[in-house]
Design a protein that fits this description.
3 domains, single chain, magnesium ion binding, EC 6.2.1.5, Succinate--CoA ligase [ADP-forming] subunit beta, alpha+beta, 13 helices, succinate-CoA ligase (GDP-forming) activity, binds manganese (II) ion, 18 strands, binds guanosine-5'-diphosphate
Length: about 400
């Protein structure tokens, strides 16, 4: 899960990383007011979207008066910002971050990532900040410094000092850099982050070190135990279909066909896609309801699949291990009652409580097409499609 720059800055500041003073604005008036309260001659107005490359895309500007801030802010708020990273759809700008401007002497790159090879947190740094890491790796790979952190020891002071020296820092900056590095590491570790990136980390005219930009992303699987982090989620920055599925604990991917699929387990889902193709059909989606699916979750899965207007048949294929066929069956019936299903539904149940599940479906009196095997289910789904284009 990604968060906004201003949220990442607040977190990092709490752990001891120096960041510029600033505030969040949702309206041009608030933005102009922040310029006046900050009290400086220059401030930076920055679009808050979950993406880098905002500078190049016109989402960052140095402003010299409250009128200039107001004008720039009203041009940004409510629009979409298309950056190199967002794709053509872009991301909506709902809020801005207004901060005091810094006088930059040097720009550095600093990142903390999970290195899967060493199974450890790794620092990636470069004396050439400001550029995106991908471009840095391509254009100036020699400048990249990598340092792996031993989890039993944590980030050792000697490592942090060595990194500061290799970045060309000296004097009081070494101590400041060590403090910043340790703070980033603690924030990463204590909050189950997947990535901390400060690009650029700048050395100012007066010799101080400041995080001019900040990006953090978190392990979604750990959010249950990081309530504070979870509360920073901004659904406005997500794909609405994905958000809906995510909110209901479903893994959903939209595809081009017309057979809607509700399946448990990614492996069975993939096998079902193949069987559908083999039977001459095309899946409309890939939806994994996961293990231990309650009737409510099955019902939400129907809602998700039915929100795709291309869907003309639904195939439910469950091999219940942790799941229970009677729960799934009740979920299907609940979906008929609550969602209102007007297209054919094929259900294949197998595994835990299969007899109970089949009985519930049989006794419901609903026009559900039953199937015993995966192959049977796939053929039944293909056959059940309305043949309005049979003349072809
Ligand atoms: P990104 O483009 O999304 O990565 O956004 P950044 O926060 O990195 O800002 C983009 C660029 O704006 C930076 O690389 C700087 O060149 C410039 N910038 C941001 N804040 C300041 C500032 O306080 N002073 C100056 N002079 N430039 C700034
Ligand atoms: Mn940046």
């Amino acid at each position: 899960m990604d968060i906004h720059e201003h949220q990442a800055k607040a977190i990092l500041a709490r752990f001891g990383v120096p960041v510029p003073r600033g505030g969040v604005a949702f309206t041009p008036e608030q933005a102009a007011h922040l310029f006046r309260t900050l009290g400086g001659e220059v401030c930076v107005v920055k679009a808050q979207v979950h993406s880098g490359g905002r500078g190049e895309a016109g989402g960052v500007k140095l402003c010299r008066s409250d009128a200039e801030v107001r004008e720039f802010a009203s041009g940004l708020l409510g629009t979409t910002l298309v950056t190199k990273q967002t794709g053509a759809a872009g991301k909506r700008i709902d809020r801005l971050w207004i901060e005091e401007a810094s006088n930059i002497a040097r720009e550095l790159y600093l990142g903390f990532v999970l290195d899967r090879k060493s199974e450890r947190i790794m620092i990636v740094a470069s004396g050439h900040g400001g550029m995106e890491i991908e471009d840095l790796a391509e254009e100036d790979p020699e400048s990249l410094i990598r340092m792996v952190i031993d989890p039993a020891v944590g980030l050792a002071d000697y490592q942090a000092r060595e990194l500061a020296f290799r970045l060309g820092l000296s004097g009081q900056q070494v101590g400041q850099m060590v403090t910043a590095l340790r703070a980033c590491y603690r924030a990463y570790r204590d909050l189950d982050a997947m990535m901390v990136e400060i690009n650029p980390l700048v050395v100012c005219d007066d010799g101080s070190i400041v995080a001019l930009d900040a990006k953090m992303s978190f392990d979604t699987n750990a959010l249950f135990r990081r309530e504070e982090v979870a509360s920073l989620r901004d659904p406005g920055q997500e794909d609405p279909r994905e958000s809906f599925a995510h909110d209901h604990g479903l893994a959903y991917v939209g595809l081009d066909g017309d057979i809607g699929c509700i399946i448990n387990g990614a492996g069975l889902a993939m096998a079902s896609m193949d069987m559908i193709q083999l039977a001459g059909g095309a899946p409309a989606n890939f939806l994994d309801i996961g293990g231990g699916a309650s009737p409510e979750r099955v019902c939400q899965a129907f809602r998700t699949v039915l929100s795709d207007p291309n869907v003309s048949v639904i195939l439910v294929n469950i091999f219940a291990g942790i799941n229970r066929c009677d729960w799934i069956a009740n979920g299907v019936i609940q979906a008929y009652k609550e969602v209102g299903i007007e297209i054919p539904v094929v259900v294949r149940l197998s595994g835990t409580n299969v007899e109970a599940g089949r009985r519930i479906i049989r006794d419901s009196g609903l026009p559900i097409i039953g199937a015993d095997t995966l192959s049977e289910a796939a053929h039944a789904a293909v056959a059940a499609r309305p043949h309005t284009i049979a003349a072809e």
